[in-house]
Specification:
This protein has about 675 residues and is an alpha+beta fold. The chain has 3 domains: about 220 residues, Aminohydrolase, N-terminal nucleophile (Ntn) domain (Glutamine Phosphoribosylpyrophosphate, subunit 1, domain 1); about 210 residues, HUPs (Rossmann fold, 3-Layer(aba) Sandwich), CATH 3.40.50.620; about 70 residues, no CATH class. Helix content is about 45%, strand content about 15%. It is built from 30 helices and 17 strands. The protein has a 6-stranded antiparallel beta sheet. Strands 4-5-6-7-11-12 form a 6-stranded antiparallel beta sheet, covered by helices on one side. A hairpin with a 4-residue loop joins β2 and β3. The chain is globular and about 75 Å long. About 0% of the residues have low confidence.
Length: about 675
């Protein structure tokens, strides 16, 4: 796991020393991603520069130093991530080399400098070309590849989006990096807040791809390659995203013909999933440094740890964070699972005060506004694990692949209700409710809430939630319907001054016309949107802030393809979620140890905002400061804050999003140009 950065100038050439100085400044911002080594490489005549920060995982020797030049001298790469099947690829390349001797000479094996997966990647690209090499990779990665022969740059991201890669323009220079802070280190960088990105952030609590928070800055989409040269780059630089090409498509897999769906029995599915997950766990346990795993005691992490223990000759190291507050503590269940499996378990109970100490650091850890409050325990468990290991496996992906979120079943019930009502009736009901709640009954609604005990009032559906559900009833399509379930606010353009929303990633025109099961749609939409832009961002930044590499066996793309082709009845069965994954787990852990209602990995933000965080929130949401920034509607934000503070409504989700944005704005000193 590492951090990468670099630039490609499309209009000027800089001296070698100047190029290297800029690259070093960019790389230094990523020292937490790679504390073990740093390297830079530049070709001023071509306008290209690559930088690298290394967290040594495979081949700890200098032979793994990056940026790395291929044996044929044609390619240079700065690589972040892991290629889990690099040994198999190495053997395949050796076989091909021996079977195709050079003209006029004997067969010779390839000469390898070391044992790193980066060297294997370069050799595969040299022998097969980039497209074929990518199709053969099993892993997580983001890398920048410079082709010295074609004078072309390729920015590549893994299939599911585990590793981040941003790019944008600093004048006439394309800059790219693992994190935005490295882009800002380029001397020509100028960045203001992108209004569309901010509006989308206020809706979801994260900035959905391909947007990034800064104007003219973007994320490379998962499973995609952006290719350009200095010459072709002259056509860009106006702030628009650069076209990309895909080498893998979750959409094509999820909505393939019925003939390609899994046709075996339920027990066949369980056996096949166990085989795929066991293989993924074994591959991801390979490292030249200590490896452990996060363990929450839930289905996903318990399944990974159970198979990890099966594959190991000694006790696996597992880590859990515990909280004092009931309803947020998973430590007891995790300890029971760890004891049964015989792992070397470490748990740490965190007081509310210790958890809150992390909050001031969040805007720098997540150098793009990020509103998922489970970032706090994720950071804490990563810090705990890093004390004993350098790599930690996780159970991320189980909810999206096997239908684990309760909202799937709720959405299905509401969607069925929607379909049973004629469209004119749905529209009229939503319109009446919208008018009533926005009109004279608003005051009555507030009075009723004010007269109720706060413990009752905060449990009632919020006015905003009622409106969102009613809006969902009149949604014209499934994507727009589901958007309401993911939204923290119904109308983000009211909160953002001059706000305008970008086209959602699940645009109508991009969806297949052939009907599929509702639940299959929802899982697909989460897997390609919410998952890479929220869950994977949360884990990557929290772990890398502690110089910890995380690996997710459930995201092995072969397992993902298997899951996408499973009938929904093998995932959600009689109202139960993740059926097939649970059946795998029950082969190793008694059902009684893991059966419990789903518990989010979070903290009681709503209560904290009314108590110990109140002064901090008052400062960030000061109306005068909001008006000075000129980005948010100070009056509407003030109303939300007053209602929440008084206990009239629970606005913890939109308020936390707004607070994280304001904290980010202040920490990074961002001002509109």
């Amino acid at each position: 796991m590492c951090g990468i950065a670099g630039f490609l100038s499309v209009s000027s050439r800089a001296p070698q020393t100047e190029s290297e100085g800029v690259l070093r400044r960019m790389a230094e911002t990523l020292v937490h991603r790679g504390p073990d080594d740093m390297g830079v490489w530049a070709d001023p005549d071509a306008g290209i520069g690559l930088a690298h920060r290394r967290l040594s995982i495979l081949d700890l020797s200098p032979q793994g130093h990056q940026p790395m030049v291929s044996a044929c001298r044609r390619f240079v790469v700065s690589f972040n991530g892991e290629i889990y099947n690099h040994r198999e690829i190495r053997r395949a390349l050796d076989r091909e080399s021996l079977s195709t001797p050079p003209r006029g000479g004997p067969s010779l094996p390839l000469r390898w400098r070391g044992t790193s997966d980066t060297e294997v990647l370069l050799a595969a690209i040299s022998a097969w070309g980039l497209a074929r090499a990518l199709k053969n990779l099993v892993g997580m990665y983001a890398f920048a590849l410079w082709d010295r022969a074609d004078r072309g740059l390729h920015l590549v991201r893994d299939r599911l989006g585990e590793k981040p890669l941003y790019y944008g323009w600093a004048g006439r220079t394309l800059v790219f990096a693992s994190e935005l802070k490295a882009l800002k280190a380029h001397p020509a960088w100028r960045g203001g807040v992108d209004g569309e990105a901010l509006t989308a952030y206020v809706r979801y609590g994260y900035v959905p791809a391909p947007k990034a928070i800064f104007t003219g800055t973007y994320k490379v989409p998962p499973a995609s390659v952006i290719s350009l040269s200095a010459e072709s780059g002259m056509r860009y630089g106006s702030g628009d995203p650069i076209p990309s090409w895909q080498y893998w498509s979750a959409r094509d897999v999820a909505f393939a013909s019925k003939d390609e769906f899994f046709r075996g029995s339920a027990q066949d599915a369980v056996a096949r999933l166990e085989e795929l997950l066991s293989n993924a766990v074994r591959m991801q346990m390979v490292a030249d440094v200590p490896v452990g795993a996060f363990l929450s005691g839930g289905v996903d992490s318990s399944a990974v740890v159970a198979l990890m223990q099966c594959a190991s000759s000694r006790a696996a190291r597992t880590f859990t964070i515990g909280f004092m507050e009931e309803g947020y503590n998973e430590a007891r269940q995790a300890k029971s699972v760890a004891r049964y499996l015989g792992t070397d378990h470490t748990e740490l109970y965190i007081t509310p005060a210790e958890a809150r100490e992390v909050i001031p650091d969040l805007p720098k850890i997540y150098d793009e506004p990020f509103g998922d409050a489970s970032q706090i325990p994720t950071f804490l468990v990563s810090r705990l694990a890093r004390q004993k290991v350098t790599v930690s496996l996780s159970g991320d992906g189980g909810d999206e692949l096997f239908g684990g979120y309760p909202r799937y079943l709720l959405a299905r019930r509401i969607w069925r209700l929607r379909r049973s009502l004629p469209y004119p009736l749905r529209t009229r009901l939503a319109g009446i409710a919208n008018h009533v709640l926005k009109g004279g009954a608003e005051r009555l609604y507030r009075i009723m809430l004010a007269r109720m005990p706060s413990t009752v009032a905060t449990r009632l559906p919020s006015r905003e939630r009622v409106l969102r559900l009613l809006t969902a009833l009149q949604a014209p399509s499934l994507p727009s319907f589901y958007q309401q379930f993911l939204s923290h606010v119904r109308e983000p353009t009211r909160l953002v001054l001059g706000g305008q929303e970008p086209t959602p990633s699940f645009a109508e025109s991009e969806l297949p016309t052939r009907p599929h099961g509702l639940l299959q749609w929802l899982m697909y939409l989460d897997l390609t949107g919410y998952f890479p832009d929220d869950i994977l961002v949360k884990v990557d930044r929290a772990a890398m802030a502690n110089s910890l590499e995380t690996r997710a066996p459930l995201l092995d793309h072969r397992l993902v393809e298997f899951s996408l082709r499973l009938p929904v009845r093998l995932k959600i069965n009689r109202g139960g979620t993740k059926w097939v994954l649970r059946e795998v787990l029950y082969r190793h852990v008694p059902k009684s140890l893991v059966e419990r209602p789903k518990m989010g990995f979070g903290v009681p933000v709503g209560a904290w905002l009314r108590g110990p965080l109140r002064e901090w929130a008052d400062d960030l949401l000061d109306p005068g400061r909001l008006r000075q920034d000129g980005l948010l509607n100070a009056q509407l934000v003030g109303t939300l804050w007053q209602d929440h503070r008084a206990g009239r409504q629970d606005w913890q989700y939109p308020l936390w999003d707004l607070l994280m944005f304001q904290a980010w704005l202040r920490a990074h000193g961002v001002r509109q140009p």
